[in-house]
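Q: Hand in one record:
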Amino acid sequence: MTMTFSATTRAQNIARLKTEPLDLLIIGGGITGAGVAIQTSKMGIKTGLIEMQDFAGGTSSRSTKLVHGGIRYLKTFDVEVVSDTVKERAVVQQIAPHIPRPAPMLLPIYDEPGATFTRFSVKVAMDLYDKLANVTDPRYVNYLLSKEEVRKREPLLNPENLVGGGVYLDFVNNDARLVIENIKRAHENGGIMASRIQALQLLHGENGRLNGVHVKDRLSSAEFDIHAKLILNTSGPWSDLVRQLDPKNTAKPQMRPTKGVHLVVPSDRLPVPQPTYFDTGMHDGRMTFVVPRGDKTYFGTTDTDYQGDFSHPTVEQADVDYLLKIINHHYPQAQLTLNDIEASWASLRPLIAANGSSDYNGGQPSKLSDQSFKSLIDVVQRYENQQASRNDVEQVVNHLEKALNETSTNPSSVSRGSDLSVTSDGLLTLAGGKITDYRKMAAGAVALIRDLLAKQFNLQFAPINSKQLTVSGGDLDPAQVPEEIAALAQIGVAKGLPQKEAEKLANLYGTNAKIIFNQNLVPLPGLSLAETLSLHYALTEEMVLSPVDYFLRRTNHLLFQRESLDALKAPVLTAMAAALNWDETEKQRQAQQLDQVIAESDLTALKHN
C-alpha cells in the first residue's frame, strides 16, 4: 500500500520546505494552525505548516474533550458567547461528523449559596440555549428532572440540598483526532506539513519585512531556512515566545495561560450515565465536568495561572487533592482516592490577558443583579405563554446588556476571546479562542491572509465556504452518523474483525475506516488484527513517529484503556522499530520516553510519595 502521510512524507516535505518558497508558513500544528491550513491549502495558497512536537502535542490534545456550548454564560447573560458557540459547534459537527457526538448533559441543581442556577432559572436558560442552538430534535430538546429523577439516574450524587436537575444537549469530542483529520485533509489539498520542526528565528528580507524562519529538525538536529511571503503564528500558549524569535519584535506579551487538570478512574468506581456538570461547591466560581468514556469516567478541571514549562505541564498533588475533594463531596459514596486514578492529563489554556482571562471565549466575567435576572425570566415566561411580544423580550435583553456594561471584546478578534494581530514587519499571530471556535477563528485569519497576498504580492485567491469543508474521514451525512458508522463497521466484520473491534475503528476513523479495513495484513506478533490495522494506518497515513504519538494522540489508548496498555507496549515498539528503521539505541530511547509519559499519566510519583 502506498504511504500517503508517513515518516517518508515528512522527509519529502522537509526537502520541499528547504527549497520551495511558500505563500504562507504556519508555525504551530494544534487545532488553530490545522484549521487555517485546511482552508488555505484548499484555496490554492501554497501553505507549509511546522509543529515542534507531534501534531496536537500541546493544548489541542489536552482539553475536556467536549465541544461545549457554555450554558452557564447565560447566567451572566452573555448571550452572544453562547449563540456564537452553539452555532459554531453545529458547523464543526457538519464538517467533522465522526468526531463530535451528541451527549446530553445533566446539570444537577443544588440550593446552596453561590449556585450558578436555580431550578427556575435553569429552565429559562435551557430554553434560550435550545433556541440559540436551534435544537428541535425531540431526542435532544432540554427537560427538567425532579430531585427523585436525578437520584434515580445518578444514585451516587449527594442528595443534600439537591432540588432537581436539567438536561440539555452537549457534545463529546476527540480533540487530537480533530487536529489530525484537519492536517490530513490539508495535506491532501497540497499543504506541506511537518511535525517536530522547531522555529528558532524569524528572518527578514532587504526591505525589513519578514520573509522566512530559521528552523531545527528535532529528529536530526539539522537546521535550515524556510521562506514564505507571509508567516502566521498559531502556537497557542507559546505565541508570545514565537513573537520573541523576531529580533525586531516590540509587541507586549498578551498570553496568560492557565492550567487545567483531568483525572480518569474506572467507571465502576464512579458510574455516571451521561456527562454531568456542577458547581465545585468550593465557592470559587468554577464548575466541574464528570464525563463517561467507554468503561472509564474522567473529571476536571482545575484552572490555575501557570508560569512553568509550557511543553510539560504536570498534574501536582494540589490538583489531585482539589479534584478529589470536589468529587467526593458530590459523590460521597465513591470515596475516590489517589490509587483509583488510572490516568490523567494536564493542559494549558491559551487565554489572552486582555480578556480578563475569562475562562470562556469572551469579555470580563460579569454578574447580573437578581432583579435583572428575574425580569428576564418573567418576560421569557410571558413570551412562552404568548402574553408578551418578541419586542418585549428584546427590550429586556438590550437593557440587561447595557446594565452589564461588558468590556467589549478586542476589536481585532475573529471570535470571542481570540486575537488576530500583525506586527510592523509582518508577523501574523492568531491566539486565544477555544477548540469549538477553531474553524471560525481560522476563517477570520484566512480572510486577512487572502487580503495581504492580494495587496502586497498581487496574488489572487478565490474565497471558499469553510463551513462545508469536511475534514479527512468526515465524508458522512451528519444527519445519519450512527447508521453510516454501523454500515462502515460491517465492512470490518466482513474482513474478519469482531463486531466490537470493527465498531471501535469505524467510530475512531470515520470514512477512513474503509482504507483501514482494506489493508491486507495479518496480525503482528502480540497484536490483534484490529490493533495491527490501526497501527499500520497510523504509521502510513497519520505521520506517527513515536509510540506516544500513537497511544496518546491518535488512539487515546493511554488515557482510556490503561489496563491493556502494558501488554501492547513491546509489540508496538517492535513493529514501529521495524517500520521506522530504529537501531537498538533508538528503540530503547523510545521505550523510555513511552514509560515516562505513562508514569506521569499514572501519577506514579505521587502514588509513591
Observations:
- The domain at 64-173+256-404 is CATH 3.30.9.10 (D-Amino Acid Oxidase; Chain A, domain 2).
- Residues 39 and 466 are 7 Å apart (CA to CA).
